[in-house]
Amino acid sequence: MTLCRLSGYxxxxxxxxxxxxxxxxxxxxxxxxxxxxxxxxxxxxxxxxVIYAASNSIVLLLVDIGEQNPVHGHNVVTxxxxxxxxxxxxxxxxxxxxxxxxxxxxxxxxSLSDWAVLVLATTLSSAITPGLFFVALENTTVxxxxxxxxxxxxxxxxxxxxxxxxxxDIWSLIGALxxxxxxxxxxxxxxNRGSLDLGPGEIAAFFATLSFTASTIITxxxxxxxxxGVFSIFRTVLGTLIFFLYNLLFSGHHEFHAMFQxxxxxxxxxxxxxxxxxxxxxxxxxxxxxxxxxVALATSFSPLAAISIAIILLGExxxxxxxxxxxxxxxxxxxxxxxxxxxxxxxxxxxxAMEMEGRVNFKGI
Length: 365
Known about the structure:
By secondary structure, the chain is an all-alpha fold. It contains 14 helices and no strands. 77% of the residues lie in helices and 0% in strands.
């Protein structure tokens, strides 16, 4: 009798659990699906960061290939030609992703002041910034360009607090400053001189970083309501046009007349497939699925990835300061990540895409 009652109780318990199990199972599956999507999104963001960190090294390799295969005595695989052709190719995935943003309704909502700010932000981010980065790469190493670029996060945070009235996270600022300190250690101990040696390349990289930071602040301040697709495509088209016209009219350091030589058309696809197509697809799909903190963590490793890839692909020697500087940078990344875990953001990664862009080195496009 007791056993029967126990059995009956167990049966009733199972019966009572069935509706609960049926009710919660879809929620469990949904949680697992979101977690899996976020995991793959984080992986894609890491892939994009590595690709973008490699962009400067790949560009230098292609320019070197052009020097070894001159056309009529000239290298046609130049920074300018790669940038212009690469930007035009980058429009293909952009249009595929964002064509729905280009509606008459969206365009009519933009005022004259919006278009003026768009032009200003575009000129800074897609014409002046790449031009200065190319000057930097012609006069110094990829390692030094990546190191100088570490001034961006602390300057961006301070500028956002001053001009955008955003709350300054002290821990994030401390983390960014510690990362910058690690970068300074690497630069100071390079060639065992123990002092900072800033040449034309480092100065150009410094102003390129300031230019991109300014464009990001302007974008966040005045263009938050502009659809991302309108901004991205407009920036690419106008920025490429301004860059092309400036170099054509005021700079003799270009080979635009030889832009369609076979050697360039062959190697531009290496640049396009690796950096533009693979990089953009990984970045955009990653941003759509990853958590904002995962994106921030991945982009934090961009300078170390850029230096490591330059060592592997170009044989650059970062000097005796690389290991101690990298250790300090890891400490800064840990401090910044601690701040993000303390303040779990409610924003999704795609909503922070423009902010995160400022954390990644120049993407070559």
